[in-house]
Amino acid sequence: MAQSDFAEKIEGGEARSRQAQNGELADALRIDGLQIEYTDVMTGDKNRNRFLYYQLKRSMGKANRIDMIVSFLMESGVRMILKDLRAALARGVRVRILTGNYLGITQPSALYLIKKEKNLMNQYQFEQISREMERRYGKMEKGGEDEFMTLLLAMESNLLKVWRKYPDSNSRRLEEAILLVLHAIKNNTDAECVNAGRFESLANIRLRDALLAAFDPFSNESVRKALEEKAGMNLEDKEVLREYYRAPVICILRIKESVECWIKERGSNGYFDFLEECVGIQVPNDDEMSHAILLRR
Where in the chain are the domains? Predict the structure, then answer.
């Protein structure tokens, strides 16, 4: 890295004063035992404040969004900032990295390291899916249940059957199952798939599968045939899929609100106790999963 006397001359001068006025010195970060302050000039030499490495780590530690453009990616370089990338992802920071493949210098192992970190979902990302899907698809208006009643009943019937047979698949496990379903929908409609497997358990998988059976063409062959053969839907078209999933997502988000409400009122079995009281008499004691298809006119 180039070195310059200019960096040393301005350290106590105008640039430093400007930084102080902007409040940039006051929020210096401690990195590797060093107090790293913001700088406009990176020269290396003895002053570690002026190392690109430390300025990069400092910026990543404060960022709410990270966009990098680099000519090449090397495994050794990626490993130097891997912890910082991991910490940023844990905070829910969006990370994008653009690199090149000129002369084959970029190492596949470096790309693998980044992809591995990005695909390991953390608790924050897992729980934020409901907000993301609400922004994308909207939510059910107050008093708007009638439009979605057929699909809601199919979902709730399936869930109640599972709970009757497996009481450990309770309302709290249903909260997790709902998030798993929303992630499954997003993976089906987006180019990039993220693995939520670390949050799966036998108790919530039963409920997840019960929900998906009510509407998902990739989980229920009857739904797939109805959409492809009767509705003429191209399930390989992501835009078509997004439009189809609108109604199921809205119903799932409505169920999520209800689950949270009844857990507060009655505890871990609250939602299912409520279902049993309201629709239990209509739901037979068998293992057959119901499904319903709602298409926009």
Answer: 5-124, 138-282
